Amino acid sequence: MDNRPDDTKSEGAATLGYQQADTPVVKPLRLWPLTLLILIYWGWRLTARYLDMAQVVRFMTDFGSAVLLAVLFIAWWIISRRVPRKLKWPAMITLVIVGVGAKLLADGSITVAVMISFGLPLVVTAWLLALYLSKRMGKKSRRVGVIGAIALVWTGFALIRFDGISGEGAASFSWRWSQTAEQKYLASVKLQAGKTASTQTAAAPVSAGDWPAFRGPGRDGIVRGAPAISTDWNAAAPSLLWKGASGPGWSSPVIVGNRLIIHEQRGPNEAVVCRDLSTGAQIWVHEDPVRFEESLGGAGPRATPTAVGDKLYTFGAKGLLNCLELSTGQRVWSRDVLAETNAAVPMWAFASSPLVAQGVVIVWTGGPEKGLVAYQSADGVPVWTLPAGKSTYTSAQLVTLGAKEQALFISDAGLTSIDPATGKPLWDYPAAAPNSTRSVQPIAVGSNQVLISSELDIGVALLDVKADGGNWLVTKKWQSRAMKPSFNDFVLHQGHLYGFDGAVFCCVELETGKRKWREGRYGHGQVIALAAQGVLIVTAEKGEVVAIKASPEAHSELGTFQALEGKVWSHPAIANGKLVVRGDRETACFELKPQP
Question: Which CATH superfamily is domain 181-591 in?
Answer without folding.
Answer: Quinoprotein alcohol dehydrogenase-like superfamily (2.140.10.10)
